[in-house]
Specification:
GO cellular component, one term (chain A): glutamyl-tRNA(Gln) amidotransferase complex
Family (chain A): Belongs to the amidase family. GatA subfamily.
Structural class of chain B: mainly alpha
Helix content of chain A: 25-40%
Low-confidence stretches of chain A: none
CATH architecture of one domain in chain A: Alpha-Beta Complex
Low-confidence stretches of chain B: none
Radius of gyration of chain B: 23 Å
EC number (chain A): 6.3.5.7
Largest interface: A-B, 72 and 51 residues
Protein name (chain A): Glutamyl-tRNA(Gln) amidotransferase subunit A
Strand order of the largest sheet of chain B: 1-2
Number of strands of chain B: 2
Radius of gyration of chain A: 21 Å
Strand content of chain B: under 5%
Strand content of chain A: 5-15%
CATH architecture of one domain in chain B: Orthogonal Bundle
Order of helices and strands of chain B: HHHEE
Oligomer: heterodimer
Mean pLDDT of chain B: 91
Catalytic activity (chain A): L-glutamyl-tRNA(Gln) + L-glutamine + ATP + H2O = L-glutaminyl-tRNA(Gln) + L-glutamate + ADP + phosphate + H(+)
Shape of chain B: flat
Helix content of chain B: 25-40%
CATH topology of one domain in chain B: Histone, subunit A
Strand order of the largest sheet of chain A: 1-3-2-4-6-5-10-11-9-7-8
Largest sheet of chain A: 11 strands, mixed
Largest sheet of chain B: 2 strands, antiparallel
Chain lengths: ~475, ~100
């Protein structure tokens, strides 16, 4: 599969037709899906029908004829949307998410819905109620999570782009593990309308792509104010792809001191040092910055996100939609419905959140976490007085083996140490492949100022041009 | 602070979850681990820090109070597990 940009060029010049790309995508899904398991549903007939219709028309729309996939917590009218939960196993949304509508309006073609950790809660996609997705670079390893299906689908060459959602790293971490680009926009940049809510003050939708330029193109298509989401921002949508000049001379790149980076795998630390050298040799100024409260971010997040989740998931009560268990009384029906419908990790988080919000513990846990969120936000404000973007690894390690962290929820949570702070502060972040260790990709993360995706993408793109390797999709290794 | 099996049962009740004894046994040490980890937030004096509930200071998002089309009732009920005469049906709330 070519990049989004190459497909657009080919289609615009009349060299190819939309149905050719959609058929290519479906063929690759048929070939690789049995080993990767990245899709919860595929709609080949619908996609080909839409593509054939586009074949007949003049190219129009910024993503005309480009096949793509959506994480299955993004609602699609008339198409089953499960959030990888038994409780929504047969849910058919009566409306589409704003991002799905926007992509439809740009004439992109939806081929399927991808696997995730149930309700986006997890870092390995192993919490899906339906299937486990494999890392296309090494089967038997996790693709990361929670948007593991979307990351794996792009990495295994099944679609040129896919959307995911990121609450504590759920786009950037799987992008790093699967060797693709993953962008979490500024909170409010992209409408959350139709995204099945996990933690509403943190959730944000963004793209997985092969290249930074593709991420910019998709971001242009999905961002913008939406009256259906009052937290979406009234910022002009810029032509992000035009910010990619390749010139980063004098750009100030903030890096953390060594002691803030303890616990990194050696291979990850080496790849990070190489990335710093690459940026420096391109004329960027490397400045040391400090995020003194970063070490509290995981604790903060694992109170705030579950608290919001416990409230958001109260709606699954077996009354208006979703699964219902039988019960003699209303209360018994609620309790049985939720117990049968939710998986263990979802229950765990609902319980933590309920506890943190309960009488007597609210001040000690939830309120304190909100105060810590202020300090983490202020850390970034101070850091961005000294630099334009902040460079860290996306994750402390490369992808781990399936099953390795399932027995220890806390160990799984600690994997999110570098990605969580940007969600707490609402800032944009991107993961870009920066090397490989034992066949598994390493990602570097850049975090930018609020609504300054242009600078973020510019630095990421310049790095991508200079890093000395092109994106290595895993397609050769799977199903062929 | 120690999470006991009773705490787990109590919180499950608040969250409208029926948990089995096997789940209580598993969740008790796990929730202890996680909340113990979260106790590091108690180390700092945060008295003078203002709480953040949202990354950006939002003012109220208001709109004109006008009638607009909404989801038709039959559409809204399509996913309901049990409905009749345009309403959802649930088990008895009160005994009797």
């Amino acid at each position: 599969m070519q990049t989004v940009k190459e497909i657009i060029r080919s289609l615009q010049s009349g060299e190819s037709k939309p149905s050719e790309w959609v058929e290519l995508s479906i063929q690759q899904i048929e070939r690789a899906e049995s080993s990767i398991q990245s899709f919860l549903s595929v709609q080949p007939e619908m996609a080909i029908q839409q593509a054939k219709k586009l074949d007949e028309s003049q190219p129009s729309g910024s993503l005309y004829g480009v096949p793509y996939a959506l994480k299955d917590n993004i609602c699609t009218e008339g198409l089953r949307t499960t959030a990888a939960s038994r409780i929504l196993e047969n849910y058919i949304p009566p409306y589409s998410a704003t991002v799905a509508e926007k992509l439809q309006n740009e004439n992109a073609v939806l081929v399927g819905k991808t696997n995730l950790d149930e309700f986006a809660m997890g870092s390995s996609t192993e919490n899906s109620a339906f299937q486990k997705t494999h890392n296309p670079h090494r089967l038997g390893f996790v693709p990361g999570g929670s948007s593991g299906g979307s990351a794996a689908a792009v990495a295994a060459n099944m679609v040129p782009f896919a959307l995911g959602s990121d609450t504590g790293g759920s786009i950037r971490q799987p992008a790093a593990f699967c060797g693709v680009v993953g962008l979490k926009p500024t909170y409010g940049r992209v409408s959350r309308f139709g995204l099945i809510a996990f933690a509403s003050s943190l959730d944000q939708i963004g793209p997985f792509t092969q290249t930074v330029e593709d991420a910019a193109l998709v971001l242009e298509a999905i961002s913008g104010y939406d009256p259906h989401d009052s937290t979406s921002a009234k910022h002009e949508t810029e032509r992000f792809s035009q910010a990619l000049t390749g010139d980063i001379k004098g750009m100030r790149v903030g890096v953390l001191p060594q002691d803030a980076l303890h616990g990194l795998d050696n291979g990850v630390a080496d790849a990070l040092q190489n990335a710093i050298r690459t940026l420096s040799s391109a004329g960027a100024e490397i400045v040391e910055i400090d995020l003194p409260h970063q070490s509290y971010a995981v604790a903060t997040y694992y109170l705030i996100a579950p608290a919001e989740a416990s409230s958001n998931l109260a709606r699954y009560d077996g009354v208006r939609y979703g699964r219902r268990a039988s019960g003699e009384t209303l209360l018994e029906m609620y309790e049985k419905t939720r117990s049968e419908g939710f998986g263990l990790e979802v229950k765990r988080r609902i319980m933590i959140g309920t506890y943190a919000l309960s009488s007597g513990y609210y001040d000690a846990f939830y309120k304190r976490a909100q105060k810590m969120r202020t300090l983490i936000r202020q850390d970034y404000e101070k850091a961005f007085a000294k630099c334009d973007v902040i460079l860290t690894p996306t994750t402390p390690t490369t992808a781990f083996r399936m099953g390795e962290k399932l027995e220890s929820p806390l160990q799984m949570y600690l994997n999110d140490i570098f990605t969580i702070p940007a969600n707490l502060a609402g800032l944009p972040g991107i993961s870009v492949p920066c090397g490989k260790v034992d066949g598994l990709p390493v990602g570097m993360q850049l975090v930018g100022r609020a609504f300054d995706e242009a600078t973020l993408l510019r630095v990421a793109h310049a790095y991508e041009q200079l890093r000395g390797f092109s994106v290595q999709l895993a397609a050769e290794e799977v199903g062929q | 602070m120690q999470i006991t099996a009773d705490t787990v049962r109590h919180v499950a009740k608040l969250a409208r979850l029926a948990v089995s004894e096997t789940e209580v046994e598993r969740l008790t040490p796990e929730l202890n681990d996680i909340l113990h980890y979260a106790e590091q937030l108690q180390q700092l004096n945060l008295d003078d820090v203002v709480a953040t509930s949202h990354s950006f200071q939002l003012v109220n998002a208001l709109r004109a109070d006008v009638v607009r089309p909404s989801l038709p009732r039959e559409e809204a009920l399509k996913n309901a597990p049990d409905s009749e005469q345009g309403q959802v049906r649930v088990p008895a709330v009160l005994e009797g």
